[in-house]
Amino acid sequence: MPCLLEIKFTVPASAEDDCAAFLCAKAPHGWQEESGESGVSYRLFLENHPLAQEIAAEISGRWPGCGLSLEQPTARDWTMAWREFFTPVSCGERFDILPPWLAKDRDNKLTAIVIEPKMAFGTGHHPSTALCLDWLADFHRAGRIARGQRFLDLGTGSGILGIGLCKLGLSGLGLDIDPQAVVCAMENAALNGVAPDMACAVGSVDCLGPGQRFAVIVANILSEPLRAMARDIVSLLAPDGCLVISGILAEQADGVAAAYTDLGLDRPGLKQDGEWTALAWAGALKGENP
Fold first, then answer.
1. For 61-65, 83-87, 151-155, 280-284, which range has the lowest pLDDT when averaged over its residues?
2. Which of 33, 97, 196, 255 could bond 124 through an S-S bridge, CB–CB 3.0 to 4.6 Å?
3. CA-to-CA distance for 82 and 116, rounded, in angstroms?
């Protein structure tokens, strides 16, 4: 069990959106937050290495007087913490994300995605993940996502979105620039019995050949990378395919959407949960990709 660092701090309510954007980039596995009279209090866990210390220092620099505290919980504390606050997450009236110790008590009407909780790479509690699964459930009900299709899960993290697609009968590839995330996604794919259908690799869009096409592409990352990779992502989308992107703050949605509509896609559909949005296209690209 790696040594962990627990980081706690509080920011004014006026800084909540800025803090959420910062944490989404630095702690994509998620965090706990609680609003109170003094502002919004945050709690997150990272592996205790120099990068975690750098993140803590950046928090202190961005929000002086935030009451930053650092602690090293024991392995038992970490395990019990997960069992205390990792509750099942239902998405799109189709998927149920839950930990192994609750798998036996799951709702059999929903498609289970079992995730082994770790200190990184995503547990499904972040709104952007739930929004993506909502879109995938919608597209599946509409017949736009179907068994036998091929998918790309870009920024796969813990593999939740790719696993969900495998359980709908698809097969494909999960990519992430973090090698530890790829290991985590592979473990979760095996845990869910979909390892044969979901290949995982370290990399991004630049590691894919120009001739590859995917019927479904999901990318739950951040707005700036999504804008920067727009042309590459669209070039990988099969004609009449489905694209879902998230990790986008509400005020960034128009700018991100424009990066894709400028390449020939129609205006996207939009789902929003608090300050987070997910954009989606289904069959918006007719004929050859740019």
1. 83-87
2. 97
3. 10
Is the Cβ–Cβ distance between 9 and 76 less than 8 Å?
no
What are the residues facing 237 on neighbouring strands?
214
Q: Which domains are assigned to the chain?
A: 4-81 (3.30.70.240), 125-282 (3.40.50.150)
What is the identity of the amino acid at 111?
A: T
CA–CA separation, 69 and 52 (whole Å): 13
H or E segment and range at residue 160: helix 160-167
What was the pLDDT predicted at 287?
44
- Give the relative orientation of helices 160-167 and 179-191 as an angle to the nearest 10 degrees: 30
What is the dihedral angle through the alpha carbons of 79, 83, 84, 85, rounded to the nearest 10 degrees?
A: 100
- Predicted TM-score (pTM) of the model is 0.75
**What digits encode the pLDDT tens for the residues 44-77?**
877 777 778 888 999 999 999 999 999 887 655 5
The C-alpha atoms of residue 199 and residue 192 are separated, in whole angstroms, by 14
The residue among 189, 54, 24 whose CA lies nearest residue 115 is 189
Q: What is the pLDDT of residues 185-200, one digit of tens each?
A: 999 999 999 999 999 9
The structure tokens 């790719």 sit at 162
Q: Please state, in angstroms and as integers, the Cα–Cα distance from residue 87 to each residue in 7, 24, 49, 99, 189, following that order.
A: 21, 20, 28, 8, 20
Residues in the chain: 290
Instruction: Tell how far CA 120 is from the center of its chain.
Output: 11
